[in-house]
Structure formats: C-alpha cells, structure tokens
Amino acid sequence: MINWGIIGCGNVTEVKSGPAFNKVKNSRLIAVMRRNAALAEEYARRHNVPKFYSKASDLINDPELNAVYVATPPAFHAEYAIKAIKAGKPVYIEKPMALNYSECQKINKASEKFNVPVFVAYYRRALPGFLKVKEMILNGAIGKTRFVQIQLITSPSEDEMSGKLSWRVDPKIAGGGHFFDLASHQLDYLDFLFGPVQRVHSVVLNQAGLYKAEDYVSADFTFGNKIAGTGTWCFSASPSCSRDIIEIAGENGLIKFSCFNFEPIVLENNEGRKEFINERPENVQIFLIENVVKALTENGQAVSNGITGARTSRVMDEIIKEYYRKR
User: Is residue 325 situated within a structural domain?
Assistant: First the structure.
C-alpha cells in the first residue's frame, strides 16, 4: 500500500489530483501539509484525510507515509523533493518539475544517489485521448510525421489587468510566466510522442507590460528524427484570437486536437475525416497516479519520471534564456 502525503494542498489538489490518491488501487492519502495550519486542517476535514501538518518536515518524517506529492509552486519543488528523497520516500512532483533545469538536475542526482524514484505530474502521458493520438501516429494513420504546430492564445485575466498578479507570472516563484505553466504540458507531450527536442530557436517578448514575465513566445524546434515543430504562445491577445490547438502533419494526413479544452480529436487522411472523443476524467491526474502506484508496487515503468520531466524544463529554459539574460 502506498500511503501518500501532500505538501502544498492548494487548488491543483482539490479535484485534479488529491481525490485520485484514494481512488487508485493500493493507494491512499493519509496526510496533507500547508503552512497555514487552519487551511491544512480545513482541507483534511473536507477530503477525509486523517492527518494534517503545517511544516513540510513533519509530514516527510511521518513514519506512516511512504510517498510524497509535492504540489507547491515550482520555487519549492527541489527543496521538498530532495528532502523526501533523503528520507527514502518516492516523490511525485507537480509540473513543471522545478524552477529551472539546474534544479531538476539536483533532484535527479539525489534520486540516483539515494536510489529513490521521482515522478512528475505530466498527466497527458496517461490520458486515454492523448494515448489515442500516439496510437494513431505509431499505427501510421498519417504516415511519417513531418511537423507539429502549437498555438495557445489567451487574454489577460481581470486580475492581471487590474494589477492583482498571481505567483504564476512571478519568475522567481514560477520559473517564468504562463508559458512555463501551460506550455510545459504541450512540450512534455511532444517529448512523449517524438522523443527529446534537439535544437531550439525562439523569440520571447513582453508585449502588454502587465507583469515582468514573458507574455509572448514563438519557437522553432526539431526532434532527433527530423520532425520539425513550431509553437506560438500569446497571453495578452483579444478574446477573439483565443485558440488552443496542436496539429501534427504527416505525409498522408493530419491530426488536430486541443491540449486544455479536451475537444474531439480530428484525424484527416486518405480515408476521410474522423473524430474521436477526448474525454476529461473528473480527476484528471488519476491515470498517471495509477501508473505511478503500479510502478511502485509492481516494479512497473512510469511514463513520466524525473528524466523526462527534466528534459521538458531544459527545453523551456532554452527557449526563454535570452529574454531573462537581458533583464
């Protein structure tokens, strides 16, 4: 039985992940931690969690726990992950894996030294709809893949327009802006499909001036198998420009799908046009958590680990490095 403790029981754990730990076979959530003890207690009461803490060290050192989920903002991922690893407890880390690639390397070095596994919450690697896309590519539905295009365009929130900024656009806490938070999912999924990115060229700007982090990114990248990719991310455009689409073009067809909206997956090839449901489960991380628990209890292989998670952080660092070097 894997007895989990959560460090940082914030919004992401309310539905996306937290309840899933009690729904997966051989898994249960027995403790949560938040620096505000009252909020930790309130979370534990609402989710029927037996224990709560206000100090991460107390949770990590709880002898009943044998695995830790780090769900804090990225600035604290490396610190808590390494402490859990040193305590001999496998760690499941929210994405992005850490503040930057250098911190990811420190986590992985600790993992290797203490022989404790690390997993990263890139849950699209385990979602049925996204696995369907991979299946279509592997089965040759579009022939050899030629290139992939990402477009993610959104508008500033009302809070951002009024100057009420969240930690997600504070590079010291998030590693970057919305690009780090959202594009990490897309880039990690492409790593899952095509392997590591080999080369990157990018343009990174702050166009709206609402915060210090980047709000526009365009990048060209290539994979080792001669597949090319382009991405455009803009977080300060008109609502009429909004889009969330990934297109994978092959020699014989095209696959189109959304990353965040879970719209139907579209396949167009010589046989015509087909749509496939891309269902979002109530607890969107449940299939990945199930995969992680099986890796821990049955010596299985996890689809998202410290090595793959670090690769995604390396790519994001490479894309934005010139922007932050000039600041």
Answer: no
CATH of the domain at 84: 3.40.50.720
For residues 82 and 192, state if they share a domain.
no
pTM reported for the whole predicted model: 0.97
Please report whether residue 97 resides in a domain.
Answer: yes
Which residue, 209, 231, 205, is CA-closest to 165? 209
Predicted confidence (pLDDT) per residue in 181-191, tens digit: 999 999 999 99
- C-alpha dist (Å) from residue 193 to 136, 139, 151: 11, 13, 18
Verify that 110 and 151 share a domain, yes or no: no
Report if residue 324 sits inside a domain.
no
**326 φ/ψ angles, rounded to the nearest 5 degrees:** -85, -10
Beta strands 253-257 and 265-269 are antiparallel
The domain that holds 192 is classified in CATH as 3.30.360.10
Per the listing, tokens 């930790």 go with 40
As a whole number of angstroms, the distance between CA 80 and CA 73 comes to: 11
The number of beta carbons lying within 10 Å of the beta carbon of residue 8 is: 21
Are 81 and 287 in contact by the 8 Å Cβ rule? The answer is: no
138 and 242 belong to one structural domain: yes
User: Which tokens sit at 96?
Assistant: 């992005």
Report how far apart, in Å, the C-alpha atoms of 188 and of each of 125, 139, 253 are: 8, 21, 23
Cβ(127)–Cβ(287) below 8 Å: yes
Residue-wise pLDDT for 147-202, tens only, equals: 999 999 999 999 999 999 999 999 999 999 999 999 999 999 999 999 999 999 99
Domain count, the chain: 2
Domain-embedded: residue 192: yes
- What is the residue range of 132's domain? 128-280
For the residues of 191-255, what is the DSSP string, one character each? Answer: HHHH--EEEEEEEEE--S-SSSS--EEEEEEEETTS-EEEEEEESSS-GGG-EEEEEEEESSEEE
